[in-house]
Amino acid sequence: MKAATLAVQRPRDARLLVVDGTGRIAHHARSSLADLLRPGDLVVANDAATLPASLAGTHVASGATIEVRLAGRRAIDDDARTFIAVVFGAGDFRTRTEDRPMPPALQAGDALALGPLVATVVRRIDHPRLVELCFTGDADAVRAGIARHGRPVQYAHLAAPLDVWDVWTRIAAEPVAFEAPSAGFVLDWRLLDRLAERGIGFATLTHAAGLSSTGDAALDARLPFDEPYRLPSSTVAAIVDARRRGRRIVALGTTVARALEHAAAQPGGLRTGHGLATNRLGATSRLAVVDVLISGTHEPGSSHRELLRAFADDATLARIDATLESSDYRTHEFGDSVLIEPSLQPRSNLKTATLASKFGNERTTLPA
Fold this sequence. Notes:
By secondary structure, the protein is α/β, with parallel strands linked by helices. The chain is built from eight helices and 17 strands. It has two domains: about 15-50 and about 160-340, QueA-like (3-Layer(aba) Sandwich); about 55-150, QueA-like (Thrombin, subunit H). The protein has helices spanning about 35, 140-150, 190-195, 215-220, 235-245, 255-265, 305, 315-325; strands at about 15-20, 25-30, 40-45, 50, 55-60, 65-70, 80-90, 110-115, 115-125, 130-135, 175, 200-205, 225-230, 250, 275, 290-295, 335-340. A nine-stranded mixed sheet has the order 2-1-17-16-14-3-12-13-15. Strands 5-6-7-10-9-8 form a six-stranded antiparallel beta barrel. It has a two-stranded parallel sheet with strand order 4-11.
C-alpha cells in the first residue's frame, strides 16, 4: 500500500476493495458504494468533527519544548478541561512519530504552557509519555484556546501541514474527535443522495475517535484508549427497525462499530444516550449489531487492523493485505477504502431496550 502524497482525503479516483461473506475479493470505484449496498440497509456514520489536538508549548519547570497531543476524555459532554494526552519532546509531525524524543520527566503538578493555555499534569499514567492534564480556565476559554493554538494531529508521511478543514468530514458536527473518523471521508452529498434514491437508510452517532499511533510500541499496544460516544434516539430507533425487518447495519468506520457493539453489550441492551467504549473488537468478538464494515485500509499491527479480525479470519485478512499491496491501494484516511461483510458466523442476540436517557453501569475511569 502507498501513502498519499497530498493532503487529500477524497481523491476522485478512490477505490473500494469489497470482501463478501464467502471471502471473495472484488475491486470497485469508491463512488459506486451506494450501488454495492442493498435497499433497506442502514448506514451509520460518525459525525464527530476533529479537534486541532496537537498543541505546541513548553514544560515550564525545565523550559523544554514539547508537543502535547490530546488523546482522550471521560465523556463527550464533560467540561472539556480534563484530557488524556501523549507528550513528545521537541519537534513536530515532520519527524516520524516513532523517532520523536521523549518529553522531560513529567510529574503531577507540572505546568505546561501551550500558547494561550496553561495545563497542569494531574498524573502520569504508567508511561513517561502518557498523562492526564487539566487546563486552567473555564471550558469556553479552553475550547477557544485549543481552536486558536492547536493544529490537527498528523504524521510524517505528509510533508505539508494540514488545516483543520482537511480533517473534517462532510457531516462533521461537534468537535470531539482527536483524529478524524477517517472512514467518513467516503461521504459526499452525491453519495448521500444516491443512498436515499436506493432506499438505503442513513443515521449518525458521535464518537470521540482517538489517536491511531503514539510512536511507542508499548503505548500503541494499549490503543484504542477508552472513547466516549453518544447515540441519538433516532439512530437507535433506526437500528432496531432495520433489524426487525432483517436489514443489514453498515458501520462506516471502526469507531462506529466499536460504539455500537459496546452499547449493545451493556445491561439492558442498545439504547439512546452516552457511553464510554471500553471494549476491543477482535478475533474472539461476536458481533451483535454490525453486519458490514466500511473502513480505510489499515496496516498489520495497528489497533484498527486488529478490529478487522472481528469481521474476517486471519487467512482472509492476509489475502486482503496482499491484494491491497499488489494493487497499490492508498493507506488509511488519505486514500482508498475496504468493505468487509463477515463470513457466516453465530451472532450474539441484539438486545434492545426502551429508549432511555443514558446507559446504565457506565465506566468513567481513565485508562490505568
